[in-house]
Design a protein that fits this description.
By secondary structure, the chain is an alpha/beta fold. It is built from twelve helices and twelve strands.
């Protein structure tokens, strides 16, 4: 239909109740052609599978260009970052986001700073900072076997796990490595949007590449501390790094540059050391290392993390979505609660 017979949708079975639809498009399509093809593929999939009870969930505003015809019970914009501040952000991203704000019923912001920015753009913005699978990362505290590609790296090991891009303070990494040549910096993750030639090369800096999520506790178990060496620029102004609670759950002391959503709550509570320049970063690492196996520190970490989980995050999100998607059912349920309460002769009535 579009002169692109190779376009198709691949359905992946992720679990018993979850399928992921992945569009495959021919190369060298213009943005307008790609939107037309995706719009056609999406409509075809909806009809073929009889999908008529839809919640549209957006991670990127650019998807508004091929989803405008979808009849959804609720529209959610899950805003995890200020994407327009990233290097290589697509043209028209801000305009697409403005359009998505008009369509969305709910906006979820992935951190306090981002929430404060986006709450001016929509009437129903809700803050959901990074959460954690605590039990999964806590297994790092009990792992003693070494990962093969990390085993030959001497201690002291300082680790980072995540995308290596323009948000990373590469000069800071080089300065720490030069200041303490006996320390070894281990970096896990793909290099994205910057050239590999931009990376500082030192005998004590080790780039191990992308690692499967399931392997991370094994790597964390072999580190002495976790690093958040982010640059302070527009692309990091609104970030709320998921790796912060992951390092802590793994039992690692953590050291960060003064990223706003790390400073509060983690720095304020003394759970993460905050450092503003290379000299401070080195001193912060030195101050943090003795607490690696400190039972008092671990108890404080566990007490704070006990209220964080992706399950509780999803429960709160799903309640908000349900209220938008099925307002009549929610109203009826509230009325039933009120009637039961009155019949029981109670004074208090819950209508949440």
């Amino acid at each position: 239909m579009f002169g692109a017979p190779a376009a198709f949708v691949e359905l992946r079975d992720v679990s018993q109740n979850l399928k992921v639809a992945v569009p495959h498009l021919p190369s060298q399509l213009s943005p307008q052609e790609a939107n037309r093809v995706q719009r056609f593929l999406l409509k075809e999939m909806i009809v073929r599978h009889g999908l008529n009870d839809i919640v549209s969930w957006y991670y990127t505003p650019m998807a508004v260009h091929f989803t405008e015809d979808i009849q959804a019970r609720a529209v959610v914009y899950d805003c995890m970052d200020e994407l327009s501040a990233f290097r290589g952000a697509p043209e028209g991203l801000r305009a697409a986001e403005a359009e998505l704000f008009q369509r969305a019923d709910l906006v979820f912001a992935g951190g306090k700073t981002l929430f404060e920015s986006k709450r001016r753009c929509h009437s129903s913005v809700h803050c959901f900072p990074s959460s954690i699978d605590r039990d999964f990362f806590a297994t790092a505290r009990k792992i003693h076997a070494e990962m093969n590609d990390q085993a030959q790296i001497p201690h002291l090991r300082l680790g980072y796990a995540g995308v290596i891009d323009e948000r990373m303070d590469l000069a800071l990494l080089a300065a720490v490595a030069d200041a303490r040549p006996e320390w070894h910096l281990v970096l896990l993750g793909p290099v994205v949007k910057i050239s590999a030639s931009d990376l500082p090369q030192r005998r004590n800096i080790h780039y191990l590449g992308y690692k499967d999520y399931r392997l991370l506790p094994g790597y964390f178990a072999g580190w002495d501390a976790g690093l958040l060496p982010f640059a302070l620029n527009e692309s990091t102004r609104y970030i709320s790094p998921t790796k912060t609670p992951e390092y802590l759950a793994a039992g690692l002391p953590a050291i960060s540059t003064p990223i706003t959503d790390v400073v509060d709550p983690y720095g304020v509570r003394g759970l993460v050391q905050i450092a503003g320049n290379a000299d401070e970063f080195v001193r912060a690492i030195e101050n943090a290392l003795p607490s690696r196996n400190c039972s008092t520190r671990l108890r404080e970490v566990d007490r704070y993390l006990s209220d964080l989980s992706w399950d509780s995050t999803w429960q709160r999100m799903s309640h908000l979505i349900y209220d938008v998607a099925y307002p009549i059912r929610r109203s009826a349920a509230n009325q039933s609660i009120a009637n039961l309460t009155a019949a029981d002769g109670r004074v208090e009535c819950s209508t949440t």
